[in-house]
Design goal:
28% of the residues lie in helices and 15% in strands. By secondary structure, the protein is an alpha+beta fold. A hairpin with a 2-residue loop joins strand 8 and strand 9. The chain is globular and about 45 Å long. The two termini are 27 Å apart. One of its GO terms (cellular component) is nucleus.
Length: 247
């Protein structure tokens, strides 16, 4: 069996939270009968105070320069938590050695390619959860993941594809329970090695991928080092992480 194939690809309503204020009702003793309540007087807020909280209603400004030029798939809104289901991959030294050979070669075709900081296999698209949905969402995921066995994968899954489709099917059921977007119809399971801003598929497809594949195929023990023992599925929602162990 040859080493895992390399692929080039491009990436692809909210509720308002409010608290009921205190309201006066007729006959509740809030003012004496026959008397007209005094009108409330609003004083203007000084500019010096307003300037302390720029863009409060719209949410924080999304500065793509702080994220390597990446732009959010959906705008940031207060109370919304970007959520993603995936299988983590703990890269060994041999894997990083291979990446140290692959990336410089790929950068001769697309210089702006940047190495991934962490590696994973996605089981869902990025979706938006309201904060109060997070715990019931994770509980539903844990119930769906409880019966799955561990498995092995490479850069792109060449065996065990059906088992990963079963995992995605369970994740999709939870997504549907919360009226969220399900995964792609015909997904390709893979580990992302590098990324860049913009669509660079034309530069990567063809000769570049063939040369990178040759490097992988010729790398010592490539078939072994590109396998991964999958022990858990993770859910990242905002800055919170949840782990669902597999049997």
């Amino acid at each position: 069996m040859s080493a895992a194939p390399l692929v080039g690809y491009s990436s692809s309503g909210s509720e308002d939270e409010s608290e009921d204020g205190m309201r006066t009702r007729p006959g509740d003793g809030s003012h004496r009968s026959g008397q007209t309540p005094l009108p409330r007087q609003r004083f203007p807020v000084p500019d010096s105070v307003l300037n302390m909280f720029p863009g409060t209603e719209e949410g924080p400004e999304d500065d793509s320069a702080k994220h390597g030029g990446r732009v959010r798939t959906f705008p940031h809104e207060r109370g919304n938590w970007a959520t993603h289901i995936y299988i983590p991959y703990e890269a060994k030294e041999e894997f990083l050695d291979l990446l140290d050979v692959l990336l410089p070669h790929a950068q001769t075709y697309v210089p702006r390619l940047v190495r991934m900081e962490a590696f994973h296999l996605s089981l869902s698209q990025s979706v938006v959860l309201r904060h109060h949905w997070i715990l019931p969402f994770v509980q539903a995921l844990k119930a769906r993941m409880a019966s799955f066995q561990r498995t092995f994968i490479g850069l792109e899954v060449t065996s065990g594809h059906a088992q990963f489709l079963d995992l995605v099917s369970e994740v999709d059921r939870v997504m549907e329970e919360f009226n969220l977007t399900t995964f792609y119809q015909d997904p390709s399971f893979h580990l992302s090695l590098a990324w860049c801003v913009g669509d660079a598929r034309l530069q990567l497809e063809g000769q570049c991928l063939q040369e990178l594949q040759a490097i992988v195929d010729g790398f010592e023990d490539a078939e072994v080092l590109l396998r991964m023992h999958t022990e858990q599925v993770r859910c990242k929602s905002g800055n919170k992480f949840f782990s669902m162990p597999l049997k």
